[in-house]
Each structure stands twice: as C-alpha cells, then as structure tokens.
C-alpha cells in the first residue's frame, strides 16, 4: 500500500473510538466536577455579594443618616426613616462585629490606604489574568 | 415537545452547554469521552493520567464552549484541547525531547493474527508515537506540532514519516483487508 493510500487509512483507524468499559463512570465524574465547580463559584460570588452589600449598606447609613438632623429634622417620615436606619445600622454593625469587621471604616481611610487597597486589587486581577492566559497557552 | 438530548446534534448541544447547560454537556461527554481518552492513551499516556487529562480537557471545553463555532467536529475540538494539555504535562517531564530511539518491541497479535492500531503504536519510539498521534489523531498540522512541542519542523516531519513507515509495515495486512472491505460497500 502506498503512503497516499495509507494516510487516510491511518486516520480512519485513529477515528475509531476504543470501547472503554468505564465510559459511564468517566461521564459521571466529569458531570460531578462541573456541578462542584459551579457550586463553588456560586458560593464565592454569593459570599462576596453579601459582604459587599453589608459594607455598602453600613457605609450608606453612616453617611446619609448618621448625622442627618439637618435633612430630616422635624419631619415624622424622616424620624421613621432615621429610626429604621439606626436599627438596620445596629444590626449590620452587630453582624460585622461577629466577623471581626466592626472597626472597618472605609470613609475614614486615608488616601494612601485606599490607594494600596486599589493597587492590591489590581495586582490580584492582573495575576489572575496571567494565570488564565498561561492556562490557555 | 423538547427533543431528547440523544437526538440533538453536537453543535446544538455545544450551544446549549455554552449557555450553562450541564446536562447537554454531559451528553457530549458521553458521546466523545472514550475518543478523547483513547487518543491520550495512543499518545502514550498511562490510563489514569489519560483519564485525568481527559477530564480536565472536558472541563476546559465546558468553560470555553462559546468558542466552539462548529467549523470542525466537537470531538476534534476537545481532542486538540486534550492533546495540548498532555503536551504541557509531558513538557514538564521533558520526555518527548529524548531523541534516543527505543528498541522495537515485538507487538502482541490478536486472535486472528492481526494487530490493532494501539498495539502497533507501542512499537514506535515515544517522539514518533506522539507526533503521529498529534498529526493523525488530534488533526494538528506539522508546524502546529512543532510549535507545541518546541521542536524543529524537520524533526517533527521525520518523526511522523518514520512512525507512519513503521505503522504501515505493521498494519499492512489488516489495512489491506479493511480497505478492500470498504471498497465493496461503495
């Protein structure tokens, strides 16, 4: 058989899938890994969202209503909002204290601290990008 | 009424998987898992390593499913991902760089006295086996293989040629029979 005839033949042989007795197990393992991966991603995103949300709520409360006498003074609706905001704030504060984040005050941070936090986040993002790129290479 | 997964085309399943459909992707794994695992074994991977890499390849394929446009077959696309993962793995061990030819191993014959491709591949040296499998199993072009293995193009071509010569010598009787058989069908 010449090389020209043999090349398609060898490709045909390569295209034949071998019969592997544990094919079903393999499929189940891949499906399990996919499910686990999506669960971890869901949990991580959920946790990040909750923490971010809690911090955002707490910051919003302390900025808008913490010293908001001038904004809502003498107004029944304003008093209601303020009391609600105070109770929410205390709940949030309690939650943060539980996680050891009670002392966190983004507003009180200096410009330099915020700069380093932003720089750290950017470095982490760049490292993740490089890792992803190296995986694809 | 929704069409059962088993009746759906690979391209359709891949599109659904790209939208997050794990069940649809599971069907693709069921269809092509053995082909990908088989290719890795033919490339020289041990069974457990081949399975690990095949799993990683399918996970990566799921994450990149949106990139699959259906220009080639889905199986060929995943095979290329798996082949590249295997190359990365062996590159760490620098196994394929070894140019020393292995001693020709006497192949085991099956009951009919004919050898199958898997047995014939075992008679090739490691670089020959890898290059032939990448070329004819994963559908990679010679320059692509050279770049992936970091070998000169001429070296890759000679590995493929020598490997095919050896396979031809081993598989000739079987190939002649099966080619004769397919001619009658047409």
Q: Can you give a write-up of this model?
A:
The complex is a heterodimer of chains A (137) and B (186). Chain A is mainly α and 137 residues long. Chain A is built from five helices and no strands. Chain A has helices at 3-15, 23-64, 69-72, 76-98, 111-136. In chain A, helix 2 (23-64) crosses helix 4 (76-98). Chain A is elongated. The mean pLDDT of chain A is 73. Chain B has 186 residues and is mainly alpha-helical. Chain B has two domains: 1-93, Rna Polymerase Sigma Factor, Chain: A (Orthogonal Bundle); 101-186, Arc Repressor Mutant, subunit A (Orthogonal Bundle). Chain B is 68% helix and 0% strand. In chain B, helix 1 crosses helix 2. The longest helix of chain B has 33 residues, at 153-185. The termini of chain B are far apart. The model of chain B is unreliable at 98-114 and 176-186 (pLDDT under 50). The chains are: A mainly alpha (137), B mainly alpha (186). Chain A binds chain B through residues 1, 3, 5-7, 9-14, 16-20, 23-24, 26-27, 29-31, 33-35, 37-38, 135, and chain B through 22, 25-26, 29-30, 32-35, 37-39, 41-42, 51, 54-55, 58-60, 62, 117-118, 132-133, 136-137, 164, 167-168, 171-172, 175-176, 178-179.
């Amino acid at each position: 058989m010449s090389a020209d005839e043999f090349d398609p033949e060898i490709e045909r042989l390569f295209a034949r899938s071998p019969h592997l007795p544990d094919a079903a197990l393999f499929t189940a393992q891949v499906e399990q890994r996919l499910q686990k991966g999506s669960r971890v991603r869901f949990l991580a995103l959920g946790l990040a969202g909750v923490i971010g949300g809690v911090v955002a709520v707490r910051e919003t409360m302390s900025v808008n209503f913490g010293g908001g006498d001038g904004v809502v003074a003498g107004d029944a609706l304003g008093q209601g909002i303020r009391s609600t905001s105070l109770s929410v704030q205390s709940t949030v504060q309690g939650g943060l204290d539980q996680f050891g984040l009670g002392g966190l005050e983004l507003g009180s941070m200096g410009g330099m601290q915020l700069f380093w936090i932003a720089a750290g986040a950017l470095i982490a993002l760049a490292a993740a990008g490089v890792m992803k790129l190296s995986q694809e290479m | 009424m929704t069409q059962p997964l088993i009746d759906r085309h690979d391209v359709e399943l891949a599109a659904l998987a790209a939208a997050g459909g794990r069940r649809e992707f599971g069907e693709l794994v069921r269809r092509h898992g053995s082909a990908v695992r088989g290719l890795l074994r033919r490339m020289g991977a041990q069974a457990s390593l081949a399975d690990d890499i095949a799993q990683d390849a399918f996970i990566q394929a799921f994450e990149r499913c949106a990139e699959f446009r259906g220009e080639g077959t889905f199986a060929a696309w995943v095979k290329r991902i798996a082949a590249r993962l295997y190359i990365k793995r062996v590159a760490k061990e620098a196994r394929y760089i070894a140019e020393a030819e292995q001693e020709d191993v006497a192949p085991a014959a099956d009951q009919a006295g004919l050898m199958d491709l898997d047995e014939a591949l075992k008679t090739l040296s490691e670089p020959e086996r890898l290059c032939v499998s990448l070329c004819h199993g994963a559908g990679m072009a010679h320059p692509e293989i050279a770049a992936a293995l970091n070998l000169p193009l001429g070296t890759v071509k000679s590995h493929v040629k020598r490997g095919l010569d050896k396979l031809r010598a081993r598989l000739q009787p079987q190939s002649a029979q099966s080619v004769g058989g397919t001619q009658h069908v047409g």
